[in-house]
Amino acid sequence: MDSPRDAGGTTRKMRGRPRGWDDTGAAVVKSLDRAMAILDHLGQHSGLSLSTLAGDLGQSPATVYRVLVTLESRGLVELDRLEQHWHVGPRAFVIGAQFLRRTSLVERARPIMRRLMEVTGETANLGRVQGDSVLFLSQVETHEAIRAFFPPGTLSPLHASGIGKALLAEMPAARVAGIAAASGLPGFTPKTLQRADALAADLAATRARGHAIDDEERNVGMRCIAAPVFDVHGEAVAGISVSGPTSRMDRDRSAPIAAAVMSAAAELTVAIAGVAPIRPPA
Q: Where is the IclR-ED domain (predicted)?
């Protein structure tokens, strides 16, 4: 790993390392790395026996057991003595909660949004629900002359927004109906979804494909593709999207842009320690 340099090209001292440390050599503690692999694997399952865990990781049961006992002494794993299954322990939750307290959604999203803008060539947006609107939290603008512009703090109706519909699609039907009744589903263009049944059908399609499409429903000539971001409880807390003129975001580009948006949303979900809900097969 190269050392960081300042604006003048001078190598800066790396913080958080011992004096004189050389990162070109191996810095990984193998036993600790093995322990983290075991903890990570346990976190992906609801409980595993020693033999299954050792088999999954290609390690000897004796080696895995020594690691588990060490982790157990710190509360990071625990053994269900009735079923003889190992589980992630309460201390792991405490450590994870400390991570969540210092995690900023906007901060975590910025590099992901920059990459999304570079991949698609269009403006990337981040927003969350506020009342019956989408509150835009952050934006990375494209370099194109004609582009979408939603500065932080902008509000947009949920039913006429890509991010809004991505988030509505994850809400219970009763809540969606309440929002629709409160807002009245006002029209902005001939394509705005103003009937509750039309909106419900669109939200069902959104859930099925994993992304929402605002097809000139808020502004004529502008299209948006969005996907939800989930928190640690599997609840949609934000949406990430790409917006641009229909002349560039045409039908031929919809599939690759949608794939990029869903990938970015999944990456941000992981970055905030979230988990996407498991959906039954269509």
A: 91-274
| pLDDT tens, position by position, 173-207 | 999 999 999 889 999 999 999 999 999 999 999 99
Q: What is the C-alpha to C-alpha distance for residues 156 and 160, in angstroms, rounded to an integer?
A: 7
108: its two tokens: 């975590």
For residue 1, what are the CA distances in angstroms to 26, 29, 233? 11, 17, 36
**Cα angle vertex 38, ends 34, 43, to 5°?**
145
Residues 195 and 255 in one domain: yes
pTM for the whole thing?
0.69
Report the distance separating Cα 258 and Cα 43, nearest Å: 29
pLDDT digits (tens, 9 = 90+) for 254-272: 899 999 999 999 999 999 9
CATH number, residue 43 = 1.10.10.10
Residue in 247, 226, 225, 214 with CA at minimum distance from that of residue 147? 247
Residue 202 and residue 281: Cα distance in Å, rounded? 19
71 and 41 Cβ atoms separated by less than 8 Å:
no
93 and 136 in one domain? no
Angle at 205 between CA 202 and CA 218, to 5 degrees: 35
- Identify the helix (H) or strand (E) that includes residue 42: helix 30-43
Give the chain's domain count: 2
Give residue 46's identity as a one-letter amino acid code. S
Domain boundary residue, one of 81, 98, 115: 98
Distance CA 226, CA 128 (A): 12
Note whether 121 and 198 are same-domain residues.
yes
**Any domain includes 138:** yes
The answer to whether residues 150 and 133 touch, using CB atoms and an 8 Å cutoff, is no
Range of the domain at 175: 103-271
Same domain assignment for residues 88 and 113: no
